[in-house]
Amino acid sequence: MDHHHEDHDDGHSHDDGHSHDDGHSHGVAADADRRWLGLALGLIAVFMAAEVVVGLLAGSLALLSDAAHMLTDAGAIVLALVAMRLAARPPRGGYTFGLKRAEILSAQANGLTMLLLAVWLGVEAVQRLVHPPAVTGWPVLVTALAGILVNVAAAWAMSRANRSSLNVEGAFQHVLNDLFAFIATAVAGVIMVTTGFTRADPIATLVVVVLMIKAGLALVRASGRIFLEAAPPGIEPSALGTRLAGLPDVVEVHDLHVWEITSGEPALSAHVLVAEGGDCHAVRQAIEQLLRREYRITHSTLQVDHAGGDPAVPSGGEAGLDGADPHCTDPHGAMYRPAAT
């Protein structure tokens, strides 16, 4: 009878532990992602250069802000492409998970640059509201309409990539916000052409700023949760612990940790105590099946012990429900037990 299992060949099963059928894929799919991202990058770079020229000639802050936003779009896509290559490298040296979190660094950089750019554009827009400069309406309108088409094409190309990656999603949000920005700029162009109201240009810029702040905060918050190893969205650790403790023969679950290695790759570790006479292997397999089926967690490390005395426990401690557990590395963490019947 097995009293103690720290299963690195079973508890952290590599046959399913590294399955990426949950939407976070590499290999061929990653190559396809790079092609779609490359297409979007080409569209954005060419149009951005033309927009800067038109914006300077027309004196439009809205066009220049759109061009600046497109520059961050291009930067976001470049970071995404670089991070995808880094994440695909196999683990080596001290990087036992490889460089999978490179994409989270990229996503956080995308969010921060969007917020910084929004501050600068907001200040410029307020100044132009107070002292509106002369703006030529027709170039603004025509360029904005062309920008809408370019961003629709770029957004479509990026939607074909794997958006379960926070990195790709971050770059996609850049492009999507730029699409909304061009719509606001086109409306401003129509107003300036028909009424001569030049303050429509900085007002459109402020609309862009609001969109940028919203998207930037969402990216920083999502990437920050991963850096702080918070539970993935949609998984409540206390509910998960209670669910595991309710499985047959489980008498206690503690030292429970659930986090994301990178976006789309949740991981879990836990110490599970099994009733005397219970089958530790069967309990471990039941837990792994539950994690895969209901929580899509395929990376798990489970330490499974019987709840009574353990002959493998060194002197000075005894594993059990009523005594100190020398295997527990988080003695102040929550403990989950079956509901009283």
Structure write-up:
The protein has 341 residues and is α+β, with helices and mostly antiparallel strands. It folds into two domains: 23-227, Cation efflux protein transmembrane domain (Alpha-lytic protease prodomain-like, Up-down Bundle), CATH 1.20.1510.10; 230-310 and 318-341, Alpha-Beta Plaits. The protein has helices spanning 14-17, 28-58, 61-87, 102-130, 137-159, 166-195, 200-227, 237-245, 280-295; strands at 4-6, 250-262, 265-274, 299-306. It has a four-stranded mixed sheet. The longest helix is centred in the first third of the chain and has 31 residues, at 28-58. The two termini are 28 Å apart.
Order of helices and strands: EHHHHHHHHEEHE
Coarse morphology: elongated
- The number of distinct structural domains comes to 2
CATH uppermost class of the largest domain = Mainly Alpha
Number of strands: 4
CATH topology of the largest domain: Alpha-lytic protease prodomain-like
**N- and C-termini, Cα separation:** 28 Å
Radius of gyration: 27 Å
Organism: Dactylosporangium salmoneum
InterPro entries: Cation_efflux, Cation_efflux_CTD, Cation_efflux_CTD_sf, Cation_efflux_TM, Cation_efflux_TMD_sf, CDF/SLC30A
Keywords: Ion transport, Membrane, Transmembrane, Transmembrane helix, Transport
Membrane topology: Multi-pass membrane protein
